[in-house]
Amino acid sequence: MGSAARPKLPVALVVVALLCGCGQRLAESGCGAGELACVADAGCVDVTYDDNNCGACGRACTAPQHCADAVCTASKIAHVVLIVQENHTFDSYFGRYCQAAPGSNPSCTEGPDCCEAAPALDPNGNAPILLDDAANLASDPNHSQACELQEIDGGAMNGFTAGSNIGSSICDTACSRTANFALADATSVGLYWGYAQSYALADRYFQPIIGSSSSNDMYFASAHEEFIDDTVFPLSIGSGCSDPLDFCTTSDKGQFDGNTIGDLLQASNHSFGVYADGYANAVAGGSSCGAVASDCPYDLLHPILRQGCLYDPSDIPFEYFPQFTDDPAVMHDYSQLADDLDAGTLPDFAFVKAMTFRNEHPEFSSLSDGEQFVSAAVQQILASQYGADTLILVTWDEGGGFFDHIAPAPSVDTDDAGAPVPRGTRVPLLALGPFARANTVSHVVMDHSSIVRFLEYNFVGPVGGLQAADARVNNLGSLLDASKTGIPIPP
Description:
Elements: H1 11-20, H2 23-29, E1 35-36, E2 45-46, E3 66-68, E4 71-73, E5 79-85, H3 90-94, E6 129-130, H4 133-138, H5 145-152, E7 182-183, H6 186-198, E8 200-202, E9 205-206, H7 213-217, H8 219-222, E10 232-234, E11 252-254, H9 261-267, E12 272-276, H10 279-285, H11 303-306, E13 331-333, H12 336-343, E14 349-353, H13 367-382, E15 390-396, E16 429-432, E17 440-442, E18 446-447, H14 448-460, H15 482-485
Parallel strand pairs: 5-14, 5-15, 6-7, 8-17, 9-18, 10-11, 12-13, 12-14
Antiparallel strand pairs: 1-2, 3-4, 8-16, 15-16
C-alpha cells in the first residue's frame, strides 16, 4: 500500500523554508503556517512577526524596524504628541459616559456599553455631585499619598467620602469629603466623550504611584519613582516662582541622575521637545519670575490662584534631569508648537503642558478652559502637515483625590530600596488621530510607563531601555489600529 501524500506547504512558507535552510526541519517539526522550528528544542517560531526571525530563521530586524507580515518594517507613526492635563480620575470624567453595570467587567471593546459606569452610590452610601466648572473651581481635594492610601483603603475604594480624616489645617485639608465623589456629564466634558467615540479610550490606565502630580509626572520621563508627592522642585528656570506665595509648599530643590526616554530617543537619532505654556515669560523674567499670563483670570487680590498663571517647572519631568534642564533645543514655549507645525520642525516626540489655570486642576482651572486648550492643540496638529502621521495621546497626571470605583492594579515598579511602588487610581487615556481604533475601549492594564514603552518600541526598537517599569508594563497596542500603524504594536 502506498504511503499517504504529505500535505503541501503554502508557497510563501516554502520560500521561507528555503531561505533559512530549514526545509527539512520545517517539514518534520509539525509547525503551522507561518512558523519555523528555528532553534532546536525551542518550539516553533512565528516568522511572520518575530523580530529575530523575520521571514526566515536568524533574519533579525534592525531597530527601530519590527517584523510585519514576514518583512522588517518601520512604523508609520512618525510623530507622537503627549498632552498632559491634571487631577481627575476615570470615573470623574467617564463614569457617566460608560454604560456597563459597575463590577460587570465587560470584555467587549466597542463603545460606552463596553466600559463600567460609576456606581449610583459610593461604598458609604453617598450619591455623586455634578462635576462642572463651578464644582471644579470650588475646591481642590487632598491628593497626598498619605490621604490617597486611606481613600483607596487597600482596594476597597471606600475612603473618599468617609472614614479617612488626615487634615487639620488649610495646608492639609481633610481626605474624606462628599464632594470627592463628583461625576461630569456630557455638558461638562463633552469634548472628551466625543474623542472617546471617535477614537480610543483606555479604562484600565492607572496613575503609576499613589500621590500628587510631580511624582506621577516623573514616570513620563524615567518610568520610575524618583520621589513622593510634590516634595522636590527642579533646579530650573521658574523653580520657586510658581509657589513663592504658597505657604503650604515645602518642596526641596533637586536633580536626578540617569537616563530618560529623551536620552533613548536622541541616542536613536530621534528628536524630542517640550512645549510648556508660559515658559517664555519665565525665561524673560529670569530671577524675577516673569509676568503672569496675559489672559490670567485672577487679579492681585488672589495671589495664590495667580500662581496658576505662571510656568510651573515641577510639571515638566525633563526639567529634573541636568542633561535637559532648560536646554533650548528641548524646552520651548507652548506658542512655538504652532510655529513648528507650520515650519515642518515638529520633533518626533512632543510633550505638551498647559499652565495650571487651563489644565483642569481643581480650584485653579475650569473644565471648559482645559477643554479649550486641548481642543485647540489637537485641531492644529491634525490640520497640519503632520496630521496623517501623528499619534496624539491625552491623559491626566493623577486622579486628584476624586473617587474611582476600580481598585488599582498591582505594582510593577519598585523604589530604590526594592519595595513595590503602589499604583493609584485610574485616570483617562485617550489615543487620537489616524492610528487610533475608532470607538474603542481598551481594558489592558497600563500606566504612564506604558507611554514610555510605546515610544521605545516605536522609535528605538528594543523596549525596557530604562530598566525600570518600562520593562514590565503593557504597551499601547490595544488602542491602535494595526492596519494603519504599519507594524504590530503589542498590547
